[in-house]
Amino acid sequence: MLARIYRPAKTAMQSGKAKTLEWVLEFEPASAHLPDPLMGWAQSKDMNGQVRLSFDTREEAIAYAQSHAIAFQVMEPKPIRRVIKAYADNFAFTRKEPWTH
What we know:
Helices cover 10% and strands 23% of the residues.
């Protein structure tokens, strides 16, 4: 039973960082999801796949995993690369391609 400790990435559907500030402990799936023969829904016999624990800091998540003897892997977040843009840059004389309607 291996757990992953990571910070979730910002989704494409939001512009804020609301759910990216906490650390999450999730268990790796022990078995593949199988389709239900009657309805076709995904089913699994692995109950740890439903567990998702949130922590304020990375150290709290690691301490929890160590105190409960859970093997874990910490995935460090990638550095945020911000591209600062201004609306006026669309009309700058130094623009590489001409602005058209």
